[in-house]
Amino acid sequence: MFDPVEPLKQPVTFPFSGRTAKNRFLKSAMSERLATFSTFDPSGRGQPTEELVRLYETWAKGDIGIIVTGNIQIKKDHLEATGRNTIIDRDLPSVYLQEWTEVARAAKSQGSLVIGQLNHPGRQVSINIQPYPEAPSDVEQPSTGDVLFGRPTPLTKDGIKDIVDRFTYAASVLHRAGFDGVQLHAAHGYLLSQFLAKRTNMRTDEYGGSLVNRAHILLEIIAAIRRAVQNPSFIISVKLNSQDSIPEGFCIEESIMVAKLLEIAGVDFIEVSGGAYEQTTRSSRDKVTLLYFTGSPELIPSDYKPYTVETREGYFVEYAELLRSHLNLSKVVATGGFRTSQGMANAVSQGAADIIGLARPLTAEPLLVRDILRGEKKTAKGDRFPESPMLRFVASAAQIAEIGNGQDITDFDNAFHVARFIAKMQKEIPAAISEALFL
Ligand SMILES: Cc1cc2nc3c(=O)[nH]c(=O)nc-3n(C[C@H](O)[C@H](O)[C@H](O)COP(=O)(O)O)c2cc1C
Hints:
By secondary structure, the protein is an alpha/beta fold.
């Protein structure tokens, strides 16, 4: 009998680590904000808690091929948001190895691969959290609404070396804790994507200028992790923007070139996303179409067959498809906007992506992938929010906390719950909203 989700059930083997994910689903990174936090004592920050373990135990039951954690900060004073970020900083008095081992055990308990996402926010951090951010150059992030940003101090070469060491240290801790790999967050306007974009990288040394120079730090981190971990089966992945959607921002042509460098560097999979806090974006379609017709025809393979538009789902799927045609080994994960099993299966069967990344649908329904694979669900749960992406992000963050606390998950497909949530948020806004923006 024809099984519409058969393509999603196929295992996928990564080219460099040789590891196999049991199916074509990836739980995309979502900042959990469930670590310990102390306002005045940074040494009491960032430790995984029982809530975090419960959250990953829950997702583990969902039959997801690959589980990526929310972004883990590599420097305790450079947090992505206020509050309860996870942190692995070699300067903290304890590395929390036991706690991370518990998280790995929970996430892997039903056969998923578990990957820890590592991040440094660079300049993209509210002035209330870090008034003295560090970044490739002193290009300040424009203020957005109520959120102001400090003028960043350009990193010295020693500062860059220190950042490389810190990413490497955090990866080694996760490796010792039993994680199957790491993902470097080089998307959404954070430090590594600030290095990649001309707009934010004005350096004239070997970390700025040409695209290869702008990718230098990322490539150094990958090489350093390989040297430190000494385990070829440890997965290294990168989350990369298809484009920043800002003038002088990282663009599609550059993204393809960087992805090729990452393939040479032995990156098992590249997760494709887009946009930054400065400018969110939800589609690569127009830009890829533009490339196709006018832009850089040399980037378009002669047998390029655009992904069938009528069955399109997913914000960056056109870019993912184009990227796939430029890579020989690394796998491509398309994340963002997938909501139906048909749309997900089409993206895989039509060759637009190797793997489907899901974030918000898995906070409303942590077992959604299992139910899709069993043929019991065809569509992710909807919601009754007015057209406001930010509210949806905050709502997902609230659902994450509920799962971590063992509470019932609020059903936002219920208009009453939505109204109550919005009323609550209006009291807590702008703090909640601005915090939620730092993704
Ligand atoms: C609450 C929340 C937290 C997020 N935190 C992160 C993060 O830590 N790292 C990251 O790369 N993306 C983060 N994202 C973005 C998601 O990984 C994903 O790219 C985005 O939500 C689009 O996928 P979706 O349409 O399936 O939700 C976050 C999203 C949400 C809703």
